[in-house]
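Continuing from the previous page...

OK, I double-checked the sequence for Growth factor receptor-bound protein 10 against my notes and this is the correct one:
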Amino acid sequence: MALGCPDYFLRHSNYQESMDRTSTREELIVPGFQRPASQNLPHHHDDDVDLEQLVNDMNSSMESVYSTQADTALLLNNGHGHAPHHHHHHHHMHPAYPGHGQAYRRHTPPSSSPSRERLRHSQPMHIQAVPAGRASSASSLPTGIPNPFPELCSPAGSPVLSPIQTSDNHIVKVWSEDGAGKVVEIPADMTARDVCQLLVYKSHCLDDNAWTLVEHHPILGLERCLEDHELVVQVQASMSSDSKFLFRKNYAKYEFFRNPLNFFPEQMVAWCQESDGSIPQSQLLQNFLNSSSCPEIQGYLYLKEPGRKSWKKLYMFLRRSGLYYSTKGTSKEPRHLQLLSDLEDSNIFTIITGRKLHNAPTDYQFCIKPSKVRSDCKELKMLCAEDEQSRTCWMTAFRLLKYGIVLYQSYNVPQQRKSNLSPFSAPVRSVSENSLVAMDFSGRTGRVIDNPAEAQSAALEEGQTWRKRSQRMNVLGSPSTLHPSSLSTVIHRTQVWFHGRIMREEAHKMIIQQGQVDGLFLLRDSQSNPKAFVLTLCHHQKIKHFQILPCEEDGQVFFSLDDGATKFTDLIHLVEFYQLNRGVLPCKLKHPCTAVAL
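Thanks. Re-ran it with the corrected sequence; updated C-alpha cells here:
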C-alpha cells in the first residue's frame, strides 16, 4: 500500500471519522436553535445591549416550549392526566450572565397548568436525544415541505443530539531514528502493521511493507521488531516506563520466505543431516509452518551464567516445545536435556550494548526475555552465537516455531494486495522496486537500450544536455543561485539513501538494524577525502565499503566507482545505474537504507 488509506481505515471506517471529528471539533452548536431577534441587533462599540429585554425574549421562547409539551400531555390523557413534573435541583446561572440570573428573572402570573407552576425560567433546558421511532414527531416543519437539512434535524445522525460514544482508545508514542516522536491515539485492536501504515500515511512517505515497530529497552540494552499481527496496546502494557517504540525499516522481516536456504544452514537443521541435505527449499519451510511436523535446530551456543560475567558453551536444541541444552556433550537423550526457555510466553531480542558490557565471547548476542519480565536482568537468558548466520538462524527459527502459519499470512497479505491491483492503476513504489530500463527517444518511437555501454553513453549525454540547459537558464535569469557544476555535488542530499557525514560505525549500525539483506545500501561523505563519497553495501550478511572518487574531464566533474572507467554526472545517476547493473559491485543496489522523520 502506498500513499493511500491504511488498511485499518478500510476495515473500520468509523475510526478515521472519529479521529477527524475529535481533532477538528472545537465548538458544539445545537441544531435547530435560533437566536432571538434581539440578538441580531447591530453591535456597537460600547456594547449597548438591553440585557433585560434579551432575557425576557429567551424566557418567552422557553415558556412556549413547556406550554406546548404540557398541552400535548393533557390531550393524550383526555384532560385528566398529570403532566410530568420537571424537577431541577441544579441552581446554575445562565452562562451568558454569571451572577445575574436571579436579578433578571421574569415574574409571570400563576398558571393553571402544573408544569407552568413549577417552571424555573432561570435554569438551563436539557436537550435529550429523541428515539428513532419518535423522530418524525419532533420535526417542526409543515407537511409537504421537504427538509433541507435532514442531517441536522435528525437526532439519529446529529453529533450533538445522539448519545456520546465513549471510545476505548489508547495513547502510543513512537520515535523515529532522528529522535523525533509522534503521539498517536489507537484502539485496542490495532496491530503493529496497522500502526505502521498509519505513521506512513501521516508522514507522507512510501510504504514498501518493510516498515516495522521496534520494541526498545534502553536500560536492558534489548530490542526486537514487533510482528505485524501483534497488538500494540498489549505489547505496551508489558513494557517498562523507560521502554519505547521505534519506527524503522527492516527488509529482513520476511526475507526467509524468499531465500530460506540462506537462513538455515544444513549443519544446523536436524532433518537435513538425516537426509544428507536433500530437503528441497519448499519442504524446508513447510516443516516449520506445519504444526504436525517436528523441526529442530541444533548447534553450539554460549550461555551467560546467572549473576556472573562468565559464559558456558553448550550444545542446544530448539524445538516447538522450547529451547533445550544437553548436559552431556551433544546427546539428544531426554535424560540429558534440560529446558532453558519455552517459546509461548517469551520473546527473542537482539542485544545492542556490545560485547564488552557482558564480557561476551563474540559480537553476535541475542536474548530470550519472558513476557512478564519488565526490567529484571536475572530472568533474561543471554546467548551468544559463533557468527551472524548462526544468530540469524536461531532467531528466525524461534519466530517460525512460535507463530508458524501466522507469519506466512502476514507476509502474504501485501503480496495478494499487489496482485489484486488493477492493471490500469499505478502504485507508488520505491525506485529500487521498479523495473528501470534505459530508453532511446531520438527516433519516432522509443526503444529499450539493451547494451550497457550504449545505456551509459546515453546517460552521460543526457546529463551533459541537462547541464547545458541549466547553464542557459541561469544566464537568462533563473532564480537558482547554484552554479551547474556545484549543483551536481549537492543534488544527492535530497535522496533517502544519502546520510551525510556519519561515521563508519554508524553506517554499520544502520545496515544491521535494517536487516542485512543483499543489496541494502547507503551513501555517505568520506571521512578521509572531503571531496569523495562512500557507498556502504551489504552482501551475504557482510558489510563492504566502496569509495566514490571525483574526476575532472574537460572542465566538468564526474563521479566514478571504478577509477574512472564508468563516470557519472552526479550520484543520482550513479545509484540508478548500479540498481540496474552490478558492475564492479558484488550485487546490485536494491534496498535504500532510509531514516524517516516523523
